[in-house]
Write a structure and sequence with these properties.
Blueprint: E1 7-12, H1 23-26, E2 30-33, E3 36-39, E4 47-48, E5 51-52, E6 59-63, E7 73-76, E8 82-85, H2 96-121
Antiparallel strand pairs: 1-6, 2-3, 4-5, 7-8
Amino acid sequence: MLSINAVKGFEYGQGFGSMELKGSQQNDLFFNDNGKINVHTNRSGGIQGGISNGQDIYFRVAFKPVATVLMEQPTVDIHGNDTILKARGRHDPCVLPRAVPIVEAMAAMTILDYYLLNKTTRL
């Protein structure tokens, strides 16, 4: 996900929010759920030690805001002189409409890549 343009952060499970917790608060406790092994919380987002634990995998991707805004901003020129930046032209105010299908496609391609890699090593 970090290879997608404008992505600045990636987390799965509780991600950065878990940094304020103790290990005992973060752990996903396994239990026998009528013959099926399950977890109470899935705080890890389905990934433990870099491997799926069989739970739903979920993650979040953070995008930086669009850098070009259509308002005057103070800046400096190449000589260090104070000036005003006036953006012109068409600039999208939000990458969100395109971000969702791009992230979904990247997740699908990554899963497919590992599926095919696993399938070829068995031959």
